[in-house]
Specification:
- The structure is a homodimer.
- The first copy, chain A, starts with a strand and ends in a 5-residue tail after the last strand.
- Helix content of chain A is about 40%, strand content about 15%.
- In chain A, α4 packs antiparallel against α5.
- Chain A is globular, with a radius of gyration of 24 Å.
- Chain A has a single domain, classed as Glutaredoxin (3-Layer(aba) Sandwich).
- In chain A, α1 links the parallel β1 and β2.
- In chain A, the strands form three sheets. Chain A has a four-stranded mixed beta sheet with strand order 2-1-6-7, sandwiched between helices. In chain A, strands 3-4 form a two-stranded antiparallel ribbon.
- Chain A has about 260 residues and is of the alpha+beta class.
- Chain A is built from nine helices and eleven strands.
Chain lengths: ~260, ~260
């Protein structure tokens, strides 16, 4: 089963929601059969690279509130984060364009290192207050996640690298009706919006797992409805023969139209 | 969208079916949005490592036919392969346990090199008549596919490495009702059995694509049926705010329960 998670590194509920999802996954009996894919969603897609501000200043300006109130807002989120065992420093964090981080997360996915990079980027942004908005930090995080430095620098230097992958993810989120993140989709059957309690994720996993083998066959020989063992086309089967479709009498009894891949 | 393909390297219809699928994919408008995952299916799971025989000898013994008849059977498959532009040598091929190849294909998947390794292994087995049943060839193929030699040797030396991944794939194939391969599943909605014509794959891709955003929301705030933009839980949205669920009046107007991830 596959779980797709749309998120943004700038989104505290994504950071917290990931921990809650992972707690829900830990409570799911078939967790070893679950693959997780992280997908891109920029909360602030209009922000230019290099246009970086302090989160607290941005919050104060946006809501017209003083520093104390902003700190209280951040502390509320920090409390939620800490209750999930996550570090969260409520001051000194930067806010900027996350496009390059998303591009690197796609590179990391292609190299089997996506979850590692995402965890390191979240920790850097929320717990360590390292700015994830400069190339130097991004390179260090990506190398720490197991990527090759040369390849990381090439991706950062080429604004088109994985740019379409980021935009495709964002288009798909819109098609799925996701206006915010985190947004979780289980085998394209079940969706969960937001950083919900771990039990909700366990329930969604169980529901999606239960229906994961309900597939409609199409093509030659396909019956309607559920999967049939004899759905047509040219197959090699576990009886030991590779038949051509003309061999309706059964491949093993008609060697002229069979070719073996696995004799018993 | 994700396509899962169960196959075995020993299966000529898998080799041919992969080419037909890829032709079907090339004719699909949204091909750039399709991810392909190759899954394990051993046609001859009982065969021990090192127990390798000539395919033609095995066919002759299995069907009690002479060398000429066996050659005719193989030539039939070869004709189909060549019509797809694939090399196929009908004599001199080995047959053996494919368990280690499947384990390496899982390693390759984790490193983003699965398709490369599968193509090289198919070509070695069917077109070049290199035996894919000895470790030396497997190491060379895996390195050629872009894997690190040390890691490949470690996996080959440890029979447990990725063994569960192979068996999980095979269990899932059984649950899906697949008795033979190749077996194609599109977003866990649509299935195709066998090496069918390219048009069948294009049709399956189109059908699965059309329904890929039909997701049922669960959890707090989820309505029944289709995705809702306000499905509940704590989200950061593109309006620029990260709300807590208590903020039912809307995050942007209630800064005390909001924390910004993306101001506009």
């Amino acid at each position: 089963m596959r779980v797709e998670i749309w998120s943004d590194i700038a989104c505290p509920w994504c950071y917290i929601g990931k921990a809650r999802f992972e707690k829900g996954l830990a409570g799911f009996a078939h967790r070893d059969g679950v693959e997780v894919v992280h997908r891109s969603f920029e909360l602030d897609p209009g922000r230019a690279k290099g246009d970086t501000v302090q989160v607290t200043d941005m919050l104060a300006a946006k809501y017209g509130r003083g520093a104390d109130e902003v700190r209280a807002m951040e502390e509320h989120v920090a409390t939620q984060a800490r209750s999930e065992g996550l570090g969260y420093r409520s001051e000194g964090r930067d806010h900027g364009s996350t496009f390059d981080i998303h591009r690197l997360l796609h590179l990391a996915r292609a190299r089997g290192r996506q979850n590692e990079l995402l965890d390191l980027a979240y920790r850097a942004n929320f717990a360590e207050e390292r700015s994830v908005y400069d190339d130097g930090t991004l390179v260090r995080l990506a190398v720490e996640a197991g990527l090759a430095e040369t390849e990381v620098r090439e991706v950062l230097a080429d604004p088109d690298a994985y740019a379409d992958a980021v935009r495709d993810d964002e288009r798909e989120a819109a098609e799925l009706g996701a206006n915010g993140v985190p947004f979780f989709v289980f085998d394209r059957r079940i969706g969960v919006s937001g950083g919900q309690p771990a039990e909700v994720f366990t329930q969604a996993l169980e529901q999606a797992w239960g229906s994961r083998t309900t597939v409609t066959m199409v093509g030659a020989g396909a019956g309607s409805g559920e999967v049939s063992g004899e759905a047509g086309g040219e197959v090699c089967d576990t009886d030991g023969a590779c038949a051509v479709p003309a061999s309706k009498s059964g491949p093993a009894s008609d060697p002229a139209s069979a070719q073996a891949g696995a004799p018993s």
